[in-house]
Design brief:
Blueprint: H1 2-34, H2 43-58, E1 62-68, E2 75-81, E3 93-94, H3 101-106, E4 118-120, H4 123-126, E5 142-150, E6 153-162, H5 171-213, H6 220-235, E7 239-245, H7 251-258, E8 264-266, E9 269-274, H8 280-297, E10 301-303, E11 323-330, E12 333-341, H9 351-371
Antiparallel strand pairs: 1-2, 1-6, 2-3, 4-5, 5-6, 7-9, 7-12, 8-9, 10-11, 11-12
C-alpha cells in the first residue's frame, strides 16, 4: 500500500512540475514578446520577429498577419508562413467578403464574455473558410483567427493553422494566443506611432525644402515644374496632376497656363503634371466630376483610383485612400485642385497627408501671387 501511495505521489508531483514548467514557458514566451513594446524596430522588422516567435512556439502549418487601412479595410498581407509561393500574396490585398470568416472574426463582440476569436476545428468537415477567401490555405486541418484591436477597433488579424484537426481545442493554448494577439496589437500600434512620427518629421523637413524651391522661380514654367516634382517627392506620389478651372483663374494666369507647352485642356480644366499611367486627358475624363466637386466645395477627397466612383457623395466618409484630391484656393476663392496618387500596394494617404498637401498648395498660391 505504501509503495502504491508513493507512486501516486510521484505521478502527482511530476504532473505538478510539468504544469509549472508549462506555465513558466508561457510566461517567458509572452515576456519575450512584450519586450518588443520598447523596441526600436521598424514595423516590418517587428512583425517578422513577432511572427517568428509564434511560429516557433506553436509548430504551426501556416500563419499570416494582415493589417487594415481602416476597420472596414482594405486589409493587406504583411507576413506569411508555410505558404507555397508566398510572394503572390505578400503586401497584396486580402479579400474581405461580408460573409467571410475574416469579417466575422473582426466584428466587435457585444458580449464581453464572448471569446474574441474565430475557431474552426475541422476545415475539411465544415468546408470553412470558402476556398476563394484564402486561396493559399490548405483545405484540411484547424484554423484560428485572432483580431488585433486598438480600443476595440480592429486594425488587423492573426490567421493561424495546423494540419491536424482540433489543434486549438486546448483552452490554455487559446488563452495564450489571445494574450499574444493583444501584445502583438500593442507592439504594432507602438511601431506605427513611431513610424508616423518619423514620417511627419520627414514631411516637415520636406515642406521646408519645398517652400524654398518655389520661393523665387525664374519663370512660371519653372514654378510649375518645381511644384509638381516637389509634391511628387514630398508625398511619395507616382502621379501628380495640377489642374485649374479656366473660368475661375485670372486672365493673366490663364494666359501663362496656355503658354506652357506641357499644359493640357479638358472641357473647363487646364492642367499639367506627371502621371504613371493615364494621359492627363484620360484622367480628366475619368475624374472630372470629382475634380469639379473638390473645386466647388473646397474640400479634399480620398479614394481608390482603381475603382469606379459614381458620385462624390460615395467618398464622404473616406479617411484614407491611395489617391487624394485637394482644392487650391486663393483666400476663399477656388482656383483648381491637386491630384496625387501613391504607388500600388501601399497604405495610401490619410488626414495628416492631406494637411501636408494643402500646406504645399497654399505655398504654391503664395508663389503665384509673387509672380504677379
Amino acid at each position: 500500500m505504501q509503495e502504491r501511495a508513493d507512486v501516486v505521489d510521484n505521478v502527482a508531483a511530476l504532473t505538478l512540475v510539468r504544469d509549472l514548467q508549462r506555465q513558466l514557458d508561457r510566461v517567458l514566451f509572452l515576456q519575450n514578446c512584450a519586450s518588443l513594446f520598447a523596441s526600436p524596430l521598424a514595423l516590418p522588422a517587428l512583425i517578422t520577429q513577432l511572427m517568428d516567435e509564434v511560429w516557433q512556439r506553436n509548430q504551426l502549418t501556416f500563419a499570416a498577419l494582415v493589417l487594415g487601412e481602416s476597420e472596414l479595410g482594405p486589409y493587406f498581407y504583411q507576413d506569411l508562413r508555410g505558404v507555397v509561393d508566398a510572394r503572390r500574396y505578400l503586401k497584396k490585398q486580402c479579400p474581405l467578403p461580408l460573409w467571410g470568416e475574416l469579417a466575422h472574426a473582426l466584428v466587435r463582440r457585444l458580449d464581453p464574455e464572448e471569446p474574441d476569436y474565430l475557431l474552426i476545428d475541422d476545415i475539411a468537415a465544415t468546408g470553412r473558410p470558402a476556398p476563394d477567401e484564402f486561396a493559399w490555405m490548405p483545405r484540411s486541418g484547424s484554423l484560428i483567427i485572432l483580431p488585433l484591436r486598438k480600443q476595440s477597433i480592429a486594425i488587423g488579424a492573426l490567421i493561424l493553422g495546423r494540419m491536424r484537426a482540433d489543434h486549438f481545442a486546448d483552452l490554455e493554448l487559446r488563452l495564450e494566443l489571445i494574450e499574444f494577439s493583444v501584445i502583438t496589437a500593442r507592439a504594432i500600434i507602438g511601431a506605427q506611432i513611431q513610424g508616423d512620427l518619423y514620417a511627419r518629421a520627414e514631411q516637415l523637413a520636406g515642406l521646408q525644402l519645398f517652400s524654398r524651391s518655389i520661393a523665387s522661380p525664374a519663370s512660371f514654367s519653372e514654378l510649375l515644374t518645381n511644384i509638381i516634382e516637389g509634391i511628387a517627392e514630398l508625398m511619395g506620389a507616382t502621379s501628380v496632376l495640377l489642374a485649374f478651372n479656366r473660368q475661375l483663374v485670372t486672365p493673366q494666369l490663364l494666359q501663362l497656363l496656355l503658354e506652357t507647352p506641357a499644359a493640357r485642356d479638358y472641357q473647363n480644366l487646364i492642367g499639367i503634371g506627371i502621371l504613371a499611367t493615364d494621359e492627363p486627358s484620360a484622367l480628366f475624363a475619368r475624374l472630372h466630376r470629382l475634380w469639379m466637386w473638390a473645386v466647388d466645395a473646397g474640400q479634399p477627397l480620398f479614394f481608390d483610383p482603381a475603382q469606379q466612383v459614381d458620385s462624390p457623395e460615395d467618398l464622404y466618409y473616406n479617411e484614407t485612400g491611395r489617391a487624394l484630391m485637394a482644392p487650391i484656393t486663393l483666400g476663399d476663392s477656388p482656383l483648381g485642385a491637386l491630384y496625387i496618387e501613391s504607388p500600388p500596394n501601399t497604405p495610401g494617404y490619410d488626414e495628416e497627408d492631406m494637411v501636408v498637401l494643402r500646406t504645399a498648395a497654399n505655398a504654391f498660391v503664395i508663389a503665384l501671387q509673387q509672380l504677379g
